[in-house]
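Title: Prediction job returns without error message
Component: structure pipeline
Severity: low
Priority: P3
Assignee: unassigned

Description:
Job completed but the reporter wants confirmation the result is attached to the right record. Sequence as submitted:
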Amino acid sequence: MTGVSDVLVVAPHPDDDVIGCGGSIAKHVRDGARVTVVIVIGRERSALDDSVSDAEFAAETEAAAKALGVHRCVRLEEPSRDFALSRRVHLDLVRVLREVRPQVVYLPHDNDDDVEHRMVHQLTVEALWMAQSEFFQETGGRPMPAPRLVLGYEVWAPMARFQYAEDIDGQIETKVEAMRAYASQLRHAAWDEGIRGLARYRGAVSSGSGHAEVFQVLSLGAVPAGPAGGGRD
């Protein structure tokens, strides 16, 4: 992770970036990297937060990004439950990839229980290839170099196997603070306690103590061609 100047995080929904890799985001920022977050799908209202306006929810997203130190947050506002993989949304993501030219990319892991998470995984893998190709000139910019590292993160579908663990003991409070910025989401459940518990469990499993985030390694210096094999013994 040394020498990383630009990081891109692709999140299916608002708060998925915080849950999946919020500690790693804060760590990249601490080390001087610019972190761009792309949130693909817009807000899904529920009876528990229907009184929260779209402007208020957008302010929660901004507050969470600020807590982590995110440089830029891009919201594509694709429709929830009607989300489809189209050329347009691929090109939207390719455009951001070519602008940011990240050395590290985070996306949902390939076996998440949520269908929209799996769709965004597929979207990102395909957009990574597209952004590096000589085609799709309508997005502007030059083809981007291959990222040094592409990592799949977990949200609420923990991975049975992982290949990489990041120690976030020094960032866990920042991650929890960012989750608490989503006050409307905490009406559904105690997600702030959930992310602390998951990080504590992952810390115990990966190193015996502390807090950690774990990842599927999808690519080392090249575009991912398919699901990663192997696992952590």
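Comment from assignee: result matches the submitted record. The chain is about 40% helix and 20% strand.
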